[in-house]
Write a structure and sequence with these properties.
CATH architecture of the domain at 62-223: 3-Layer(aba) Sandwich
Structural class: alpha/beta
Strand content: 5-15%
CATH superfamily of the domain at 62-223: NAD(P)-binding Rossmann-like Domain
Shape: globular
CATH class of the domain at 62-223: Alpha Beta
Number of strands: 11
Helix content: 25-40%
Oligomer: single chain
Number of helices: 9
Bound molecules: NADP nicotinamide-adenine-dinucleotide phosphate
């Protein structure tokens, strides 16, 4: 997995390495690249490979699963009976958020953009899904004039009401990573004293929202980033036991790197796409029986 921090840094010893000044994300924030046959890692970045998974299955989950684990398990301290709204529920983070809610005894509703994605989300344990195409008007673009914002807000209210109906109450937690387009709706929709936990901003990182809904109803916004070594280890155990499963949509050869990125850009993927770098074919590396990845299909 990707977290890197210097052993010389005092924060790494007994504090949280993710808050250490030396913390970096390997492959993205340093220049060592990715999709490589060989790579340099630090010892604390290594985890046991689940024996029941192939190489491409094992490679598919670290970044998004560990991030979702920290967001729900530690940052939000999810409890049995909690109600959770998950944006992008058939995406890389979402497929794990839904499964984590299920094993925590919480109820999740996932937001998606197609029926096929919705069916996947239900298969992963969500009580139901919402197709966001039915609420296009709620998306915040930024720069709306007062009349446009009034109309947008009305759609957000309609969405919140629908979420409440599906979950049997307002969500205790909203799982956010879409950012600008959805954040005002997330703050409105979460219940009083509830938590909006956010780790990304796919649609834009300048977030604006009506803060009265935050302070008057004493809601919390929690920023979250990846996971520390202990969280990764605990989360990985759930995969080893088959309680959480990777969701793999496609596996491609090395020459598919460009196409894979294009598919993600066009938002056509479900769960994850794996690239074979050293492995000669799919299906290698499994050394024990047990559930492998869930294979997601479109259409
Ligand atoms: N901080 C961290 O540690 C960390 C870790 C992992 C990821 N991230 C960030 O989190 C974000 C999501 O990552 P991911 O791997 O889950 O990506 P992903 O596989 O592309 O999934 C994101 C999902 O969000 C939904 N979405 C996209 N644009 C949207 C919009 N305008 N409005 C509503 N929903 C929209 C899409 O679902 P539908 O079309 O079905 O609605 C999509 O499946 C990225 O920005 C990533 O950089 C941060």
């Amino acid at each position: 997995h990707c977290n890197q921090a210097s052993y010389e840094d005092v924060e790494v010893h007994g504090l949280d390495p993710l808050a250490a000044p030396s913390q970096q994300i390997w492959g993205y924030e340093t220049s060592w690249g990715s999709f490589a046959q060989f790579t340099k890692v630090q010892a604390q970045q290594l985890l046991p490979k689940p024996k029941n998974l192939t190489w491409e299955e094992a490679a598919s989950y670290g970044l998004t699963y560990f991030t979702a684990y920290r967001m729900l398990m530690d940052q939000c301290d999810i409890q049995p009976g909690d109600r959770v709204l998950v944006w992008g529920a058939a995406g890389g983070l979402g497929v794990f958020a839904i499964q984590l809610c299920k094993i925590a005894g919480a109820q999740a509703v996932g937001v998606v953009s197609s029926e096929a994605k919705g069916e996947l989300v239900k298969r992963l344990g969500a009580v139901d899904y919402i197709d966001r195409n039915e609420f296009k008007g709620m998306m915040r673009k930024g720069g709306e004039d007062p009349d446009e914002e009034t109309a947008r807000f009305k759609e957000s209210r309609r969405f919140s009401k629908h979420v409440k109906e599906l979950l049997g109450g307002e969500p205790d937690i909203v799982f956010e990573h879409v950012g600008q387009a959805t954040f005002p709706t997330s703050v409105l929709t979460v219940k009083p004293f509830g938590k909006v936990v956010i780790c990304g901003a796919t649609s834009g990182y300048n977030l604006d929202f009506d803060v009265r809904y935050l302070w008057m109803r004493q809601k919390q916004i929690i920023g979250s980033h990846f996971a520390n070594a202990y969280e990764c280890y605990k989360a990985n155990e759930l995969i080893e036991r088959g309680q959480i499963r990777p969701v793999l949509w496609r596996t491609m050869g090395f020459d598919g790197v460009g196409e894979a990125h294009q598919l993600m850009r066009e938002n056509k993927h479900l769960g994850k796409i794996s690239i074979l770098v050293g492995a000669e074919s799919e299906g290698l590396g499994r050394t024990a029986e047990g559930p492998g990845a869930i294979r997601a299909e479109v259409g």
